[in-house]
Amino acid sequence: MAKAFNLLTSDLDVSSESDLSVSSRASNRSLRVAEKERRKSEAEDPFLLALKYFSEVKAGTPWMGNDVLERNLVLVERMGLTRGLPPEVISTMLDYAMSLRMGAPCVRVLKFLIPATVVPQEAIVRAVAWLCVGKIAISTQVLFLKWVLTFFDMIDSKDHLRSIYGFIFNFVTEEHLCPYICHLLYLLTRKDMLHQRSFIFSLSPQGRQPFLLHLLSLYKVFCPELVTTALPSKLRGGFKNHVTPWKGVLNAIQKRNTGQVTSDIRLTIGVKDGSNSRKRKCNHLQLPSLNSAVQRNLSSTNSRKVFPLEQLHSFPELLDNLHRIELPSQMGSLLGSSLALCYLDYVQDDSAFLRLNFWLGHALHEGKKASPYAQNCVLPVSTCQNCSPLCLFYAYVLSRAPQEGFFSTESFLYKFLNVWDGSLLRPQILGLLSHIPVVPSSCIHQLLFEPLMQLFFSSTLFFKCSVIECLNDMLLKWLTWHSVYSVEDGLDISLNSHTPMNMTLSGFMDSVMELVLFVGRLATVGLQLEGCSSLLLSFVLDFYETVCDMFLKFELPLVVMPPVGVFYPALFATDPVSVDRLCFIMCRYKQNLTAAKFQQQEHVFHISSQTYREFNRYQLLMVSTLWNSRLFQPGMAVEVDHNLLALSKVPEPSASFTLIRHPAFVGYALDFHLKCWPERKDMDLKSVKAGKHWEWYLEFLFSHGYLGLQQFVQSNINWHPGSGTKSQGQGDGQPTNG
Amino acid sequence: MSLLKPFSKLPELNTANILLVENEEQFQQILAETIVLLKKNVNVNVRLARSLPLPIENEKFRPRIDLVVFIINLTSELSYQSAEVSLKFLDPDYFLGKVCFLVTNARNASVPPERLISVRKLVASLHCPLLFAEDQMTDGVNTAAHRLLAILKVTSGHVPMATGLYLSSLTRCTVPSDIDQQNFD
C-alpha cells in the first residue's frame, strides 16, 4: 500500500497535497481531482483574468453591487496578503486604483498592495501623475504617500522619480500632505539636483514644523547659499516612522518567500530562532533590514548606475563601487553592516550623517510607545515581560552607533544618565559616555557631572572604577581631537566638519580643566569612602598619567596637579606599584613643566605660578619622605607637633616612610637584609642605609621593575652611586617658581 | 503620633538596620531578600513597613534605624502620595543624611513626566539622594541592593571618616533647571 502511495506521489509530484493518514484509494481520487483542477486553472487562471479585468475595466463602471469586481478584488487581495504581488501586478493595480476608474475601492486596493519583489518606479511615476490630477481624496493621497514611503527601498530605481522631483515638490504646499512629501523629498534629494533649481521658501508660521526643518537642514547641508533661514542646530521630532499595516504583512511574506528574513536583528546580533514569537511582540525593535530592491543588472542599463548597499559582500566590492552607492531609506540598516559603516566613515557625507542622526534620534528617544514630549521616557520600556530583546536592541544600536558628533545619541545619553540605575546596559552607556565630544564648560556640570556624581558615590567599587576609566577615555578622546583638529595659528579647533561644533582654545581648556578637577574630586572622596582601595587608586593613577602629559603629548598648554586627596593616598599606599606610578607621574609633570617654562617665553600661553608652587611642594615632600627622612619636620608640607608625635611612641617618626621603612617597600628591605646577612639573627634595617649597601638596595629595588622610582631618583636626587655615600638629596627638581 | 528618631537608641556592635517603606509592598520584599543574601561584613537587619508612623507596640524592641528608604513606584500616584505623607513622621534629624529615595519604573512610557519632576523637587527640597532601580531585572535588583548597602554602611558608621551627612551632601538630588533643558533640546 505504502509502495503504491509512493509511486503515486512521485508520479504526480505534488507531495504537499498528500496526507499519510488517508487511505490510498481516497488519496488517489483526491489527487486526481486536484490535478484536473490544476490543469484547468492553467488554461484560464482566474488571477490572470482578474488582472485583465482591472487593466481593461472602463471608467465609470458602477462598483456598488458589482459581483465581478468583488470576486476579482478578493482574488488579488488574497494573493497580495499571502504571497505578495509581482511588479507588473503592482503596476496594473496601482494604476487602476489611482485613476479612480471605479471610485471607491482605491483605499482597499492600496491596503493589499504588497510587493513580492520590487516596485517598478514607472508605476509610482504614473501614480504621482494621477495625484496631480487632484481628484483623489486627501486621506487617500496620504495613504498613497505612506505606501510609497513604506516600500521606498523596494522601488527598483529612483532616477525617474528624481526627474519629477519638481512635481513632487509642489505638493509641499498641501497642508495634509506636507509631512509625507517632505519625508519623500528628504529621501530623494541629491546634491546635484539642487544646483539646477532654486526653491523659494516662504516660511509661514506653520512652516517651522519639524519635518520642514529637517528637509531644510538637508538642503542647507547641500547648498548653504540656498537656505537663508537660521535653523536650530538640534532638531527634534521630524518624520515619524509610520507604523503602517503593510510592514507586518511584508515581513511575513518575505519570510515565507525566502525562507528567512534578510538581515534583521535576529541574525545580526546572533539571537537565534526560538525568540521568534517574542520578537514579533517587539516588532518595532528590529533594525530595519537592508533591502533596497535594486537589481544589479537592471540598474546597469540606467543612465545613473546605483549600487545598493546590501549587495556589498566584500571590501574590494566596496572600493569598486564607492562612487555609486545608494543609501537606504532606513538609515538604521547601515548599523547592521560593518561594510556600510566603513563606507560611512570614508565618505564623510554630511547628508548621510544627518539622516543617520535623525534615525538614531528616532530610535533612541521616541521609540514606539513613548509620547514625543515625555522627557523622562528615554529607553521606552516594552510591555512584554521579558525585556531582553529590548536590551539587546539598544545594546546593539548603542554599540554600533558612530559616536562622534551625533546629537541624538548625546542627548539620549544626558537624559538617560538622569534615570540610570547604574547597571542597565552599563558597558554600552559608559562606552558611549567616553565618546561624547567636548562639552562646553557652561553646561558640563548640569549635563554630566551632577548625574554622574550622584551615581558614583552611591555605587559599588567596581562602578567607581569603571566611571574613572570611562572619564579617562573621554579625556584622551578630547585631547586627541584637540591635537588633530586644532588649527595652526589660532590654536582654535573646529571639531568634525559635520557638526556645528566650534570651540575656541580657551573654551576647550576650560572644559578639560573642569573634567580634570571633577575627576580629582571624585577620586578624593571615592578613595576615602573605599578606604584607599588599591584598585580604585590604580584607575585614578591611570587618569593622572593622561593628565600629566597634556602639554608634551597633546600640545595643550595646561598642567593640572592632582589634589592632595589623590597624592597622599598614592604616596603612602601599601602597595609598591602605586608609589612607583606616582613617581613616574611626578617625573612626567616635571618634564612637562620644564618644557612649558621654556616655551612660555615664545608663546602666549601662561601656566600659573600656583601650579609650579604646588608641584614644588609635592616634589619636596616626596624627596624628603622617601629619601631624606624629614617627614613632619618644620617647613615640610605635613607638619605635626613633636609632642603629639612622641605620644604615638613610634621610634623616629620622621623616617617612617623612607624607602626602607615605607610600608610598600619594607618587605623588600627585609628581603634585602636577609640576602645580605643571612646569618644575622637580629634585624637591623638601619644597616641597609650604610655605605655600599644603600646603593645595592636601590639597585635591588630597581631590578624589581620599579622604573618610575628609578626615573624619579635619577632625575631628582643628587646621588652619585660611585661616591659610595649618600648625599643630601636636594630636591633639585624644582623647575623653579615661575 | 510618634516620630521615628535616629539617635534615641544606642547602636549595636557590628549591626546596621535599614527600613524599607513602600506602599505597595512588592519591590521591598524582593529587595529585602536580596540585601540579606549579599556578602557583607556587618550584620544587616532589614525592616519593612507600608508607611509611617510605625506601630507603637513594637517601639521597645525596634533597634535604631540607620537608614530609611522610601520606595516610590512612579506608575502609581498613590505610591508617591503615601511616601509624602509618611515623611511627616520622621524626626528632622533623619534628614541629615539618613534618608534616601528609590524610584522604580522611571523609564516607563506611561508615566506622566510631571510626576518624576515632582518627585525630584520633593527629594531635592529634602536634600536627600535619589536612586533609580530597575525592579524588573535581577541585575537591577542586585545593583539597587548593593547601592543601598553602600549607603547604609556609611550612615551606620561603618566607613571610617565618612558620615551620612557627608555622603548625602555629595549625592543629593538636584532638579535640572528648565532653561538649560530647553536649550539643550
From TrEMBL, chain A:
This is Centromere protein I. It comes from the Eukaryota. Its main location: nucleus. Coiled coil: none annotated. Keywords: Centromere, Chromosome, Nucleus. It comes from Esox lucius. Belongs to the CENP-I/CTF3 family. The gene is CENPI. GO terms for cellular component: inner kinetochore; nucleus. The keyword Nucleus applies. GO terms for biological process: CENP-A containing chromatin assembly; mitotic sister chromatid segregation. It is found in: Chromosome, Centromere; Nucleus.
TrEMBL record, chain B:
Keywords: Centromere, Chromosome, Nucleus. The keyword Nucleus applies. One of its GO terms (cellular component) is chromosome, centromeric region. The keyword Nucleus applies. InterPro entries: Centromere_Cenp-M, P-loop_NTPase. It is found in: Chromosome, Centromere; Nucleus. This is Centromere protein M.
